[in-house]
Amino acid sequence: MNESAKEAQLGYPTQLIGERDSYESATRQIGSIVLDQKQPRSWLIGFTIAFIGVMLLMVAISYLFFKGVGIWGINIPIAWGFAIVNFVWWIGIGHAGTLISAFLLLMHQKWRNSINRFAEAMTIFAVACAGLFPLLHLGRPWVFYWLLPYPDTMGLWPQFRSPLVWDVFAVSTYFTVSLIFWYAGLIPDFATLRDRAEKRWKQIVFGVLSLGWRGSARHWARYESAYVLLAGLATPLVVSVHSVVSLDFSVGIVPGWHSTIFPPYFVAGAIYSGFAMVLTLMIPVRRIYHLENMITDRHINNMANVMFATGWMVAYGYIMEAFMSWFSGNRYDAFMMSNRFAGPYAHTFWVLILCNILVPQALWSRRVRDNHVVLWLISIVINIGMWLERYVIVIVSLHRDFVPSAWSMYGGTKWDYAMLLGSMGLFVALIYLFVRFLPMISIAEVRTLISEREEGTL
Amino acid sequence: MPQIFSRRANTIARLSIILIVLFFIALGWLGYAGFWSSYTTMVNVPLTQPVPFSHKHHVTDDGIDCRYCHTGVENARFAGVPPTETCMTCHSQIFRDAPMLEPVRASLRENVPIRWNRVNDLPDFVYFDHSIHVQKGIGCSTCHGPVDQMPLTWKGESLYMKWCLDCHRAPQNFVRENSDVFNMRWHAPSDQKVRGAQLLIAHHIETEHLTDCSTCHR
């Protein structure tokens, strides 16, 4: 049965790899982007814009170091502000990478094979952006290492009962494991690039990076078991990292934070925003680099489905929060929720509902999921919605808690926005460098797909 | 196609794994050693002073009590560095013309205090009071070392926060009889554990508040 007949029968795109792709063509197509193809003009334009963002970030950070956190809009009681909103947003975005690369690997989902590399790269860059914000928010960022347990001259350990210290361990573990996993996946591809490179310095660079990979059967046997073990290590992190991040809030007694639903609700939100970001990046990259034969309609459709499903989990979280604030009979919780619905930040809350719940309902339609321009726009709307969600959680909860005399209002300053835009610039610039200098699709795993197609086991 | 790497590359690769591990161990050790060495702490490093004042001579040879010069130590935060007049109580009579003491005479003549180089300097965010330590039975030598043996003065201890806490967490190991506070030759007796515990009660030292942040950072 050919693909189009299968597709008509099942009602969703089924193709994982182009029918004409061979080992040689796949290797050439992916490898040549790194090795010899001149980059499209859009690369230079896009990278330049992103690099301006990086410079903006540098200026914002320098001025922050010079003046202190007073340049931000934070105050008491809203001491967390944009920095923590951005931190949670970026960490959440990272989650799709681990889910795709580790979780789906253990579940034998073959549709991960041509998107995992890109998603992992996105994870690492997002975590790097996320890691900036809590450090910059410290006020005295030059003593950030006090968060680590080491034999210091003060005779003190970090406060291990604080979720902020758990964060340090959760995020640094996540970054380390993601990086190792990403690198392990790259090793056979580095060897391919080493063998295809024509310039000697490229051969040496890729040769060192490939750690002596020769592709022997013994190499592959060990590699496969190591890769699965790493995936086993990384899979709990899909759940643990954002759970720990959510504990930053739920361990506190602030109404709107102090809730047991936070860990699962944060994880669902993280995967939701992560898939939205993968789609935001992958739809244009696929078009620009003509990778439709490898990142097929099925990949896009599957990602849209995962995004849609996690979107409903997030919606469930919103509903439960509202329900519990009524059901608990706690007047502070009830006030918190009515303040979200109709308080001074009500517009933020309703735009968040529009972005995260109402607009994505369009994904019920197959026609919407197949229309990649519309899907791309929806994914951007979801990214915005997820940022607003964190804004509502952090700022709207803090600005009116128990004692009205302690209430206050909050607004980001130009430096807050400079940091946010700058971190986006850094993220996009890193993505541009990644697609230019590393194989953005796993050559080895695409070849596995081709061999399975030829054997008829795909 | 010629080989990119020679046979040696394998050895270099394996060796580099060990070297990287060793490098980070060495880096950690270097950081630790650096922070605790006298290069950073200045412990046991004599400072040069405008006048080469010898505690060894004045305390051990002449038998002058600490409090003759450091007058504030029993009832003020600062032990106090003596004014030139204190030096002159003796040196207006003895060694009157010693060239070594010219800065002291100049100070008196011009009414400008001598600028000693500070040996023990706590950071400004630390609250420290000499009188309470002296009153509760912490002797000079516990923190300042064997000052009576110092020809030029040096720091006896690092004054790191960990060092402060070592005592604040277990003062019974260091506390002594009030009569021994200015005894520079005091060493913890073999039954210090028992005696220390008794002294904590006798001196009303309440250990539970000794490690509160606000005890020292006010």
Topology:
The complex is a heterodimer of chains A (458) and B (218).
Chain A: H1 3-10, H2 23-35, H3 41-67, H4 81-106, H5 116-136, H6 163-196, H7 200-209, H8 217-250, H9 262-288, H10 297-327, H11 331-342, H12 346-358, H13 366-370, H14 372-399, H15 414-437, H16 443-455
Chain B: H1 8-36, H2 38-41, H3 55-61, H4 66-69, H5 84-91, H6 102-110, H7 130-135, H8 140-144, H9 161-168, H10 192-202, H11 213-216
Helix pairs in contact in B: 5-6
How would you briefly describe this protein structure?
The complex is a heterodimer of chains A (458) and B (218). By secondary structure, chain A is mainly alpha-helical. Helices cover 71% and strands 0% of the residues of chain A.
Q: Which radius of gyration of chain A do the C-alpha atoms yield?
A: 23 Å
Low-confidence stretches of chain A: none
How big a fraction of the residues of chain A is strand? under 5%
Order of helices and strands of chain A: HHHHHHHHHHHHHHHH
Termini separation of chain A comes to: 13 Å
What is Rg of chain B? 25 Å
Unreliable stretches of chain B = none
Number of strands of chain B: 0
Give the fraction of residues assigned to helices of chain B. 40-55%
* Contiguous helical run count of chain B: 11
What characterizes the major β-sheet of chain A?
A: none
SS elements, strand count of chain A:
0
Q: Which structural category do the helix and sheet elements of chain B fall into? A: mainly alpha
Mean pLDDT across all residues of chain B, rounded?
93
Sheet with the most strands, sense and barrel status of chain B: none
Structural class of chain A: mainly alpha
Please, how many domains of chain A? 1
Which shape of chain B, going by the Cα principal axes? Answer: extended
**Gross geometry of chain A:** globular
Order of helical and strand elements of chain B: HHHHHHHHHHH
